[in-house]
Amino acid sequence: MSFVIGTAGHIDHGKSTLITALTGIDPDRLAEEKRRGMTIDLGFAHLRLPSGVEVGIVDVPGHARFIRNMLAGTHGLDAVMLVIAADEGVMPQTREHLEIIDLLDVRRGVVVLSKLDLVDAEWLGLVTSEVKAALKGTSLDGAPLIPFSAVSGEGKGELVATLDELLQATASRPDLDRPRLPIDRVFTMSGFGTVVTGTLVDGSLDVGDELEIVPGGRVARVRGLQQHNRNVETASPGSRVAANLAGVEKDELARGDVLARPKTLGATRRVDATVRVLESASQSLAHGVELLLHTGTSEVGCRVMVLDGDVIAPGRQGWVQLYLERPIAAAAQDRFILRIPSPSATIAGGRFVDVQPRKHARHDSVVRESLERRAAGEVLQEELRKYPRGVTVSALLKATLAPEADAAALTARRIGEWLFDLGAWQAISDRATMELATYHSAHPLREGMAREELRSKLGVAPASFASIVQGLAGDGRIAERDGSLALPGHRVELHEDGGSAAALLELLGRQPLAPPSLSEASRQAGASPEVLRALAQRGDIVRVSDDVAFTKDAYETSLAMVREIISDSGSITVAQLRDRMGASRRPVLALLEHLDSERVTRRVGDVRVLR
Ligand SMILES: Nc1nc2c(ncn2[C@@H]2O[C@H](COP(=O)(O)OP(=O)(O)O)[C@@H](O)[C@H]2O)c(=O)[nH]1
Ligand SMILES: [Mg+2]
């Protein structure tokens, strides 16, 4: 089992020192950090707790100016160590980090009262009550408070034991078989090439995996993996991971990009979200305001559309649609923070509910109800509703990170890889029935509508149409006939033709084995091409060429003659058949060529034999 914990707290309160005390690793790795004695960017360390639990540790900067780095470090935390110097007590970034932890819903943590060596018992008592008050109502309310001194080492044993206990009671990160590695660091290592690090969630990675960089779509291969400086073949969710990537240069990657299996994670410029505005916010969250969105390890400018009302007041919750300046990788349920760029301050945070939403009208109760159903857990079912023309399983899963099993449990019409919301399927079925009925009444002599015509009438994509036809046929709503589509009850009715069909059959039947030219006979009978097609489809006539047709009986008779002659004399010539049928050369030749193309006979020089 492995977990990731992070630090939080005001600058100079002893976060980095605490990590060194726990792990022997100095998380301040940059030269500038060493020189200035302060954390600027994320630092990393690791620890094995007495129970054997492996812990990756992310150290964050406390300085207000580097809060964006702090936010990148809070992604994927199982627990947090909020460090508060006992001599200073609760300071501005103590509160801000606590608010961020609360908005991101990090529910487990310990509060370390550091620099114990600098205070007396009485002062410690005062600070303790101040800290407890600050935690009230946050996700760390009731978290253990552990006094600690990096100078004397006091409290270290208790802290380690408390962390161990806390993590042993923590469920390991879910493995959804949909690995996501939001990148927090990119560098090159000589002899290895491009290396990225991050906190892995939602699935495991293996050496050799092909991964897509979202957004952007570049594909890279995992050449090597490390966890806590050890080479591993597989990295599991809930761990700090360094991945050596082949096929991508350092400058093609950046913090905020996410590695995922190809085509399993989407990029988006619009999200629907539920958001809570901080009680302490200096202003309401107003419709139209431009803010900074932080999610995963990414940061992007966004504009807020408040869906209900004009503002969301401090302390209140509401629905928003966020328009992002550029696409980011995101999935439903991901947490995020909204910050005012200047003067820099956290204002709100929440959870994405839909990462591929339509543009919404404001104050629309239908939109709100759909979002509420999503927030209540019906994510996939709601997602499906967005596709009135159906969606493939993989496309549906992509926006939600839901596992394949959830797709199987949907209330939906499923045909192969295509899923249809039941209401949408009903609408498609009704539309198809209506279009075919209209077509049949306009063309009573036609067997059915061309497939492509029905597809365009339904307005569905070519990719889904075969599945739709299959589904409609399976439901008994349509029938496929000779490549055209019809209502199952449709019959070509020749009484609609004003008697021309009967007249034509009569003309062809006068001298059945020596039929007149079809164009001439049709003209005389007044039979339209429709009528000819209908007669042929019904099998009343057999057209052997454009201008030659036999009645059904005459065709069968002449076919029998052909077989007979060939079986008597081994082959047949045009002249032999012409004499036998008593016809002119023209229909006889057309008949034999038709039989060649029907693969009944085969031409050999001047004669024909049976195939
Ligand atoms: N006396 C005392 N000083 C400490 C303790 N922990 C950290 N410090 C000092 O406080 C300063 C800031 O510590 P640092 O770990 O960089 O704080 P951070 O900004 O929260 O990471 C450094 O000079 C440390 O040596 C402690 O327990 N006791
Ligand atoms: Mg530090």
Describe the structure.
- The chain is of the alpha+beta class.
- Helix content is 33%, strand content 29%.
- The chain has 19 helices and 33 strands.
- Strands 2-3-1-4-5-6 form a six-stranded mixed beta sheet. A six-stranded antiparallel beta barrel has the order 7-8-14-11-10-15.
- Helix 7 runs antiparallel to helix 8 (379-385), helix 14 packs across helix 15 (518-525) and helix 18 crosses helix 19.
- The relative contact order is 0.06.
- The model has no long low-confidence stretch (mean pLDDT 92).
- Bound molecules: guanosine-5'-diphosphate and magnesium ion (MG).
- Residues 9, 11-17, 38-39, 62, 83, 114-115, 117-118, 149-151 line the site of guanosine-5'-diphosphate.
